[in-house]
Amino acid sequence: MSAASLNITGLTAGYSQTRILEGIDLSVPAGGKIAILGRNGMGKTTLFATIAGQTRRHAGQIMMDDTDLTALDGAARARAGLGLVPQNRAIFRSLTVEENLATGLKDRPRSAIDEAYALFPRLAERRRNMGGQLSGGEQQMLTTARTILGQPRLLMLDEPLEGLAPVICDALMEAFTQLAASGQMTILLVEQRLKAAFDFADHIVILERGQVAWQGTSDALQSDPATVERLLGVGH
Ligand SMILES: Nc1ncnc2c1ncn2[C@@H]1O[C@H](COP(=O)(O)OP(=O)(O)OP(=O)(O)O)[C@@H](O)[C@H]1O
């Protein structure tokens, strides 16, 4: 298993007849770390949902390596190596941590769960606790680990740090950095915390009203406070 590239061209998509994304072009090399930024409602979640096959696509192509994802339904995209960790941390509240992890194994042996515990030791300590008993940070670790056990080659993380304490955010960001460094997956991160995005990503894309308003290196954006202010506003 190795990281996959992503090439999106002319992507226009939305919900039913409503177009939210308009003419998105985006290239991520295999093994890349990219952050998708933008104010609320600018289309970040819709972009992930569209890559995952959960919206209506009106035009454009989405290539993961040589595979045209638009020809596949959502389940086939997941089998092809696409992983999405959604914003809502959907875990099974009445299953234990270990049972939750087992649902992400696909055809892998149960022993593979140890990979999740190596990445998030906190989950090993809580393996027999119910999902519903976990803190928000632990739930985020669980939903992330469950997706990673399916060995995605392209991983999309939608605002994983939302509402979490700084110490938990640091643990999560460290795990994401470790995963990217493994060479096994390309990572796309939607994040509101600018510092976390800057520290993690080598490339940044800013969406505004469903279009790519800016893209470039993390360093270039950090040295351009006017663009940060214009497209991301105060409070970041
Ligand atoms: N299921 C849906 N049906 C119709 N419109 C939707 C749906 N989900 C989102 N939208 C609309 O699509 C637009 C983009 O929303 P989206 O959630 O993609 O933005 P976002 O950048 O991820 O925002 P946030 O940072 O608040 O999560 C918004 O105008 C939103 O109201």
TrEMBL record:
Keyword ATP-binding carried by entry: yes
GO terms under biological process: L-amino acid transport
Protein name, entry field: ABC transporter, nucleotide binding/ATPase protein (Branched chain amino acid)
PROSITE patterns documented for this protein: ABC_TRANSPORTER_2
PANTHER family to which the protein is assigned, alphabetical: ABC TRANSPORTER ATP-BINDING PROTEIN (PTHR43820:SF2), HIGH-AFFINITY BRANCHED-CHAIN AMINO ACID TRANSPORT ATP-BINDING PROTEIN LIVF (PTHR43820)
CDD domains for the chain: ABC_TM1139_LivF_branched
SUPFAM superfamilies, per the entry: P-loop containing nucleoside triphosphate hydrolases
Domain of life the protein comes from: Bacteria
Organism: Ketogulonicigenium vulgare (strain WSH-001)
Domain ABC transporter: 6-234
One Pfam entry name: ABC_tran
Keywords: Amino-acid transport, ATP-binding, Nucleotide-binding, Plasmid, Transport
Upper taxonomic lineage: Bacteria, Pseudomonadati, Pseudomonadota, Alphaproteobacteria, Rhodobacterales
Similarity comment: family membership: Belongs to the ABC transporter superfamily.
InterPro entries: AAA+_ATPase (IPR003593), ABC_transporter-like_ATP-bd (IPR003439), BCAA_Transport_ATP-bd_LivF (IPR052156), P-loop_NTPase (IPR027417)
SMART domains (alphabetical): AAA
Molecular function GO terms recorded: ATP binding; ATP hydrolysis activity; branched-chain amino acid transmembrane transporter activity
